[in-house]
Automatic annotation (TrEMBL):
It comes from the Bacteria. It comes from Marinomonas profundi. Keywords: Luminescence, Oxidoreductase. Belongs to the Fre/LuxG FAD/NAD(P) flavoprotein oxidoreductase family. InterPro entries: FAD-bd_FR_type, FNR_nucleotide-bd, MRET, OxRdtase_FAD/NAD-bd, Riboflavin_synthase-like_b-brl. This is NAD(P)H-flavin reductase.
């Protein structure tokens, strides 16, 4: 990873606790699915998936969830807000489109995101659209409530102009939500009951990633054809013995 300076173009609160950060990084080259490190003055290095695709450079986008004012994420946002430029290190991660997965000509690519895992999956999706990928691609994004949905403009544009499917699934039903609800894996399996010829990219918390993978494996998805940054730093929790 290379250290470089990025100009801060915008910091916007786009729902109750998610910030969209727009940076300009003139020296950056990356592949969709990779991440960068935000370098704090304390010496801490905080990883965030790049939420835009490479063809959008030098502009790049981050999505940062701040659920606690005392959290590290809150310190990152405060640092970015207080400076016209920041130091980043990039790119990192091997959960990306150049990892050989496309060479196998998969029948179907599943892109599955929980919460702000949306950033990484959005980058993958946008890159596949840009390169006019001719295969089947399905993007599923899971959130807890309707209030947690963000990036509405991007969602609407993506529905209009791409041949791929994109579904937002909210865990908790409400009168404000008229889309799909329930568990994310349930929506995936309702649409695709046989995953033996699929590959998957999954982005989210450790529990979300492994919980989803466990369910998809039951329907034929191979662990070797599933990719997530979580695999690099968190081992699979032991499955209960039945």
């Amino acid at each position: 990873m290379k250290e470089m300076t990025a100009k801060v173009n915008a910091v916007e609160l786009i729902n109750q606790n998610v910030y969209q950060i727009t940076l300009q990084a003139d020296d950056l080259a990356f592949t969709a699915g990779q991440y960068l490190m935000v370098m704090l003055p304390t010496g801490e290095q905080v990883p965030y998936s790049i939420g835009s695709a490479a063809h959008e450079l030098p502009s790049l986008t981050l999505y940062i969830l701040v659920s606690d004012p005392d959290s590290l994420a809150s310190k990152v946002v405060e640092h970015i807000q207080a400076n016209s430029s920041i130091t980043i290190k990039a790119p990192g991660g091997d959960c990306h489109l150049n990892n050989g997965v496309l060479d196998s000509n998969p029948e179907h690519i599943l892109l599955i995101a929980g919460g702000t895992g949306f950033a990484q999956i959005k980058s993958l999706y946008s890159a596949l659209v840009e390169q006019n990928y001719s295969g089947k691609v399905s993007f599923y994004w899971g959130l807890r409530t309707a209030e947690d949905v963000f990036a509405q403009d991007w969602l609407e544009e993506s529905h209009k102009y791409t041949p791929f499917t994109l579904d937002v699934v909210v865990n908790e039903k409400s009168d404000q939500w008229h889309g799909r609800s329930g568990w994310l894996y349930e929506a995936v399996l309702a649409d695709h009951p046989d995953l033996s010829q699929s590959v998957a990219f999954i982005s989210g918390s450790v529990g979300m990633v492994y919980g989803t993978l466990d369910q998809l494996e039951l329907k034929g998805l191979s662990k070797e054809r599933c990719f997530s940054d979580v695999f690099a730093y968190a081992p699979h929790p032991d499955k209960p013995v039945l």
